[in-house]
Amino acid sequence: MHSLGLPFRAPPPPPPFLEVAPWPLNLPSRTLPPPHASLSSSAYSPPRRLPKPPSKPTKPHPSPDLRRLTSRIVTLSRRRQLDQIFEEVEIARRRYGRLNTIVMNAVMEACIHCQDVGSARRVFEEMSGPDGCGVDNVSFGILLKGLGEARRVDEAFQMLESIDKGSAFGGLQLSAHVIYGLLNSLLESGDIWRANGLIARYRFVLHEEGQSLLLYNLLIKGYTNSDFPLGALAVRDEILRQGLKPDKLTYNTLIFACVKSGRIDAAVQLLAEMKEETEKSSCCELIPDAVTYTILLKGFGNNKDLHSIIKTVEEMKTSDLFIDRTAYTAMVDALLACGSIKGALCIFGEIVKRSGKDRNIRPKPHLYLSMMRAFAMRGNLDMVKRLNIRMWSDSVGSISPLVQGEADELLMEAAINDNQVDFAKDVLSKIITRRQGFSWTSRGGMVFTTIFSISDFVIAIKVEALSGFTCSMLGPYILPRVLVDDPVEKYMTAFDEADPLPCSMTLNKVVMRFFKDSAVPVVDDWGSCVGIVYRNDCNEIDAPVSSVMRGPPPCVTTSTSIGRVIDLLLERKYEIVVVVRSSSAYETSYSSSSRPVGVVTLKNLFRLLRVTPKQ
């Protein structure tokens, strides 16, 4: 038995008929070799020559390795590296066997974050299978949230019905946590119509857990994302009728809804109500905070109300309020919106001074860009140059290529407004060389259109006109038959001619359609446009149209100018924009009267296009 004491010598694997499942048995760390194995030392090769047997977990509970794996999944999810997540999960499964529910929930969350609801659905089905780790309320909540974000609302409601009827896997009970996942996704997209239907259907569950104020706060947030933000005030009235007391989050969201609607008077009235309630109750829970004043500053800036901005800034400084970086940035943005360059410079200097003691106050690149925009419009090239240099050394956070590009374009704009065309030409040459192209919808591109008053030109070349370039670097696109202020309905294609697809149809019946069109609108049973199907998303031939569409679709009204629609097509890289006619300003985009009347695609523009040849 001397050979049994040899350290770290693995016995030969058992024959198939002796093989047992390693899960969930807790095997000892050292096992005797099977009876048929030889006990002599000659039966063993040196340890370094033995092939390493596959390692398998000895305990079913989570190990530090699984916790590290969960953290790794979260990190990769932020980078949107979904393929890498599946690869590492597969490696961990081969090493440890069946993974736990926490890890697989993180994988589902990564799929939702990467907008791959199909993969999330497959992971959920694997978890609920006979060899899976099982699902819990968190699993259902994640999947429902993903289905809601993908506008696959019918599937989400079917899943909720299965939980309510007790036919869901594991016999889970319907809870508010599960419902809130879908409800929040609907409200984030501004789909008040379906959100109210969800609340009406499962009101008994939501109110049983005593979270009525949370529910109302979610509804208020949903109205701020809809076409009629002032509908949040009706929710506030309902809160008061129910005998509930609004909290600070309620008031801040209501103020934001008023600011978004342009009702700054109602926002100021809500602020006064917060202060009055604080004095009555002698409680600090409703004292306005930095978020409250930041929202108000944005509203005053939109209204160009310099007096109210100065008054608000003084009130913030004289109170015990902690002014963070976001509040300081809102001050500068509001002052710049009113044209108060001196006031913005005073606040900016205060930020720089305080940032020496508190690094959390150091401005982000956004603040430098705001200052640069103001000076570029006035042709102050020297200040724009200084701010550009300081942005790289004194700002906090990363400077993205987008920020860097806008900074270059602001230099070019300041140079043009300062009549330094040669400098603008050098900057433009560097931009084209670095980016291998140039976007006319960017700020730098729009700078060049200011010299011409001919409305036929959507894109003009101011730098070339001023400097007399003999060789065009740009080759602009010209739409000679388009007036940018014309309503979009003059150039749109009728919605019936776009031949929309019903959401209940499967792709195998319309697959040939995508050889001609790269994007096709989708309608529901009531004739409302609920999404767009793109050619690149059609990967499964038997999938229903509703499962691959993206929604809600980008929409504009018939009174929108064609210039604005061109900006949407180019800036946001939309392939199609739906045109709707709404009979009332108080209706949401999902109301029955907001029917689609037409579409505008890149093909519409190409028919009107003329390209100037490069010389």
UniProtKB/TrEMBL annotation:
> This protein is called what?
PPR repeat
What organism is the protein native to?
Musa troglodytarum
PANTHER family in the cross-refs: OS09G0431600 PROTEIN
Q: Does the keyword Ligase apply?
A: no
**What Gene3D superfamilies does this protein's entry cite?**
CBS-domain, Tetratricopeptide repeat domain
Q: Where is the composition biased (Low complexity)?
A: 37-47
Which residue stretches does the UniProt record annotate as biased composition, category Pro residues?
A: 52-61
* Residue ranges occupied by any CBS domain in the UniProt entry: 549-615
Q: Which SUPFAM superfamilies match?
A: CBS-domain pair
